[in-house]
Amino acid sequence: MEKTKILIVDDHHVVIEGIKSVLQEHPEFEVVGEAVDGIQALELSKSLGHDIVIMDISMPNLSGIEATRQIKEFDPEIRIVIYSMYSDKEFVIDLFKAGISAYVLKDDPLADLILALEAVKGGGTYFSTMAPTVLLRHMEEMETKIVSKDLFDALSQREREVFQLLAEGKSIKEIAGELFISPKTVESHKYNIMEKLQAASVVDLTKIAIRKNLIEV
Questions:
Q1: Dist CA 148 CA 109 (whole Å)
Q2: pLDDT average, residue stretch 45-65
């Protein structure tokens, strides 16, 4: 029997070990890699040859939302199962648009994660009980034109990366080193980000990141 290969992405090792322990009881699945942030997830997704990613949302360096977008752009065939404590509407909507196959809450029984993996393995989808309600409410709001555009949507992929690193307190020099770009380019991105998000300082950017649960406090 050919096994379904899985990459687990979570910044808490206890969560990774918990998932691995449960998956040991299901020989049809094989964990082939682990990552503690979105950047590692993206790097491994380009080399592991896995089928499914179990992805957390709130992580350092690159959030699960942005990692999902970039992984799906790189390889649309990789299926993403979100496994998170967050059920915020904006997360569900953004990730649904990004092309995820499943969304399971960490408050749900671990058996639900297995159900999600089995569904996704067969080409299907699986969403926690809250997801259909959130999506339905969003559709109703769209129909009545209640939804206002999130300023964050205006950021480019690179600007999102710089935004997160700025919000985490990284210096211009550190960001330039991590992203392999010049400090001048980082400064330019910083200016554009602050203008697009209507932020007056890096403190404002940090507040936005906390509010969107992109960084932990």
A1: 34
A2: 91
